[in-house]
Amino acid sequence: MDAEHSSATRRPVAVALGATVTASGATALPATGAPAPAKSGATALSATGAPPRSAKTIPGAPQDGGLLDRFGRVATDLRVSVIDKCNLRCTYCMPADGMPWLPQTQLMSADEIRRIVRVAVQSLGAEELRITGGEPLVRKDLEVIIAGIRDDNPDLPISMTTNAVGLDRRAQALKDAGLTRLNVSLDTLHPETFAELTRRPHLDKVLAGLEAARAAGLGPIKINAVLLRGMNDTEVVPLVDWAVTNGFEMRFIEDMPLDGDRSWSATNVIPARDIRAAIEEAFTLTADPRGRGAAPAERWEVRRPGETAVAGHIGIISSVTEPFCAACTRTRVTADGKVRSCLFSHEETDLLSALREGTDDAGIAQVWRDAMWAKPRAHGSDRVGLARADFVQPERTMSAIGG
Ligand code: SAM
Ligand code: SF4
To answer: What per-residue string of b and e applies to 319-332 under the rule 16 or more CB within 10 Å gives b?
Structure first.
């Protein structure tokens, strides 16, 4: 087999970290703690003009066992995107007009996804699977995909990240197919803000989906929210209150430079410590005794004022201001079957072509090991930090990678 099944057809885009795109309106949380701007004043994002880079093979990758990288991390947490399309257009993720979607022939089929997951679990030691997208529910054969994976891997925890639009009609079938857990993205409880933020008026559909998921016994259910300055940053406490009341775990994710509009700005990131401080004005937070492990979220127990009983849990994913790259255990496969060793990678390894060329399971596993051995230290580079002057936003955006 070829040493490299590599392709990187998309070019990285340089991000002006100092760019300030301040939304008008309320700014409930201060703009502190975001990485220091590398450049000042610039708002324009420019293409680098660099040619597409092929994933390099770095000598030294193990020839058996799991997905080890050069920094001693072992990837056991598999994230597979099943589609790049989505039915929402969240401003922090997708442009208003969507993206150039992958042609059907480039999407992994249900059988191809099943095979790739089987190799990851049975040959490479993957311990859990998260299905993501794009929006996984846009795939009509999602139940078939999950049922196939479940048949091969009876004990594998299978979770899904979804916007829950349309979940009300499919929650039970997904549960029956073998889905275990759910993360639902919901950034606001106000219909108008929802429509502005996602560019679609579907808050009621998300809430119906959540209700159906709970009724189907899919759990635990976590709610993912990205806070945007001037948009929904006044909703930290109401979201926690609502989640705790409904038995959901609320998770706040710092806005990352992976948006399709290329308008991300470090100064607009609401830092984890400000989110914590806002919550602590209404609740008591205590570090979750279960700890963080390799989980991206720092987890906290939530108590209501004057109460000793734990009312619920929250998590804060501080990818920008308090990165956790040193403990990363993730390996990602895009909907077109490319391994991305890091969210911010500029290089990808083409697993699907290897598979379609007839490579056997052992060969697929080795292509994957080689890809993960080259995993960069942090944020797409062997140098650390999103605040690096040379940080370059990857060409693939969050919806095309699979968050
Ligand atoms: N469509 C599904 C959803 O929204 O849950 C799954 C795919 S979405 C790309 C996965 C997660 O990525 C969501 O929780 C979303 O909020 C998050 N996300 C998208 N763009 C992001 C960004 N620029 N920064 C941080 N999180 C982002
Ligand atoms: Fe779609 Fe999810 Fe991106 Fe929102 S975050 S546009 S729901 S893929």
So the answer is: bbbebbbeebbbbb
pTM surpassing 0.90? no
Question: Which ligand has the shortest distance to the CA of 186?
Answer: 1
**Cis omega (within 30 of 0) for bond into 220:** yes
Asked, for residue 81, whether it belongs to a domain, the answer is: yes
In a domain, 104, yes or no: yes
Q: Is 275 inside a domain boundary?
A: yes
Host domain of residue 286: 58-401
Nearest to 224 by CA among 250, 193, 255: 250
Per the domain annotation, does 390 fall within a domain?
A: yes
**Is 89 a pocket residue for ligand 2 (Cβ < 6 Å)?**
yes
Could you read off the pLDDT of 306-355 as tens digits, one per residue? 999 999 999 999 888 888 888 899 999 999 999 999 988 888 999 999 99
Domain tally for the chain?
1
Distance 328 CA to ligand 2 centre (A): 23
> How many Å apart are CA 233 and CA 238, to the nearest integer?
10
Q: What is the CATH number of the domain that holds 108?
A: 3.20.20.70
Query: CA angle 352-358-359, nearest 5°?
Result: 75
Distance 24 CA to ligand 1 centre (A): 23
Q: Is 88 in the pocket of ligand 2 (CB under 6 A)?
A: yes
Of the bound ligands, which one is closest to the alpha carbon of residue 90? 2
Residue 261 CA: which ligand is closest? 1
Neighbours of 36 (CB within 10 A): 10
Q: Is 86 in the pocket of ligand 2 (CB under 6 A)?
A: yes
pLDDT digits (tens, 9 = 90+) for 68-87: 999 999 999 999 999 999 99
